[in-house]
Design brief:
The longest helix is centred in the middle third of the chain and has 17 residues, at about 15-35. The protein is built from three helices and two strands; from the N terminus they run ααββα. The protein has a two-stranded antiparallel sheet. It has about 70 residues and is mainly α. Helix content is about 50%, strand content about 10%. The radius of gyration is 14 Å and the shape is globular. About 0% of the residues are buried. The protein has helices at about 1-5, 15-35, 50-60, and strands at about 35-40, 45-50. The chain has one domain.
Length: about 70
């Protein structure tokens, strides 16, 4: 989540690494509760739910991302 947050410039008002980590954990937990992420095999690992992955692939292949 940290990498995505940095890549998407979501930490613009964050001054400490601990604040960024806390935000990323909140986002990950929200996505986990919404069943968009699922717990992986290793401790602390999260994976994208198969349905979310299938939708994202379908969405991307139809060129909807660039409209």
């Amino acid at each position: 989540m940290m990498r995505y947050g940095i890549g998407l410039n979501l930490f613009t008002n964050v001054n400490k690494l601990s604040e960024a980590t806390e935000l990323a954990e909140i986002w990950a937990n929200d996505l986990l509760v919404a069943s968009m992420l699922i717990k992986g095999d290793a401790g602390g690992e999260l994976k994208v739910h198969d349905i979310v992955r299938a939708f994202a692939i379908s969405f991307a292949t139809k060129g909807m991302l660039f409209r």
